[in-house]
Amino acid sequence: MATKKAVAKKENKKDWKPIIIYAALQIAAIFIGSFASGVKAGIDAANSNTPLEEMNIEVDTGLMTAISIAITGIIFVIFCIMYRKKIAEDFRRMKKKQWLFVGGMTALLLVINFGLTALFEALGVEMTNQSSITESMGQALILTALGTVVFAPVVEELVFRYSLDSVIKNRVVFIVVSSLIFGLMHGIGVVTILYVILGLFFAMCYLKTDKNIVASMTIHFINNLIGVIGIILSLPH
User: Fold this and answer.
1) What's the pLDDT tens digit per position in 177-200?
2) What is the pLDDT of residues 74-109, one digit of tens each?
């Protein structure tokens, strides 16, 4: 009886740590990126003998992306240390039925994802997040691929699924809120729709497998991997 109460207490415990760590370091990434862009602009001005006030200073998106991926990598390491036991335990909990469910959800998601992407491209809608990833890949292929395929699924699932679920107890509210925040964090505009749908799939996969974080990480990983492969194949050789 005491064991059941202990388990129930553990499941009902709110875990804000992933959200706080993620938010703090992402804000830090913005400040670091802005500072680094300013320093780079100053160096460029000195090299070109042009007064800094006369230069058209713009944010270096490539530099900002590299810093963002580096910060995400730091968060990834922190989370892997903090939640290594949970991830290992959830992996052991994955049974054949759950793996089949994840496979089916992944296949359905990819069909919807490719369909929406093709529709947006046909309508001439620019996917800002996809464009930034493509540009970053052209500059730092391995770093961007690592950040997108490895870092993001682990970090984002622990933040947007595990942590938010521990805070929001109502399932419907959790699905809606986590999906909306996940979508908005990846861009404002049409791209938001695509990522909200992704968030819905990840949240449903997480809940339908008895809140198994490995399940949502897996579908997230496969989705990002296929997306990255597609971008690499489309890069000019």
Assistant:
1) 999 999 999 888 888 888 999 999
2) 999 999 999 999 999 999 999 999 999 999 999 999
- Beta strand residue intervals within the chain, DSSP E: none
163: nearest Cα among 182, 146, 148? 182
158: left (phi over 0), alpha (psi -120 to 50) or beta: alpha
Other beta carbons less than 10 A from residue 205's beta carbon: 25
Angle at 156 between CA 37 and CA 101, to 5 degrees: 145
